[in-house]
Sequence to fold (249 residues):
Amino acid sequence: MAGMKVHLSRWVCQGVESNLSRFEAEAAQAVENGAAIVVFPELFLTGYTREVDLAEVRARFARISAAARETLFVFGSISEDRRNRITVWSGGEQRAAYDKVHLFRPNGERERWDQGDRYVAFGWRDLTVGLMNCNDVRFPEQARALVLDGGCDMLIVPAWWPWRRDWVWSTLLRARAIENGVWVLGCCIAGSAFAGEDFAGAGNHVFDPLGEDLRTTDDVSYDLDVEHPPTLIVDPRDEDRLAPEVVVF
Fold:
């Protein structure tokens, strides 16, 4: 797994029918190009305002992952059961699901969805992967719990984050990598071209466990040497886990 290839979609959200056909084609192309992990961004099929036949979507997720049994698919998120839900698929089956915990109040997410009640990690090959969704990355305690309690080597973060605050998005992703000594993959919506929901999204970013960014020519295909990660100066997982009292004067 030394040269594991990751595909982070630069997705432009359009009409629902267009989205459904295009994501299947992109997933197939990513597999053909050798991607071991394929990630789509948050709400990439519908944006915030539209609906889709979830039974059809899940059937497509299953079909795509069944056709590429060695590939892990993180299909961004869907709106389901009043949750903003990331689903992870391999071999034709859902491997994990995570409901967004830290809903973003300015976009009305707290009225649209119920808050998730747990953090989620899962094992795949020789990795343990933790899931976060967009605004979650602002909360270091979530990443910390995924690494220290969940044993994660990698965090995958789909997002719908604006271009004008790309510097915030990239800074937070880098911080989560540095403070936890793990790979962090941020896959953001590139844009939305839908009437009433025009949106320019932030960039894709991948940081190694030292917080160094992996640069590519396309911001889509990344090669991660997960078998030989860089040596950490300080490994936060080896530190004593003290919980000092907070004294307020």
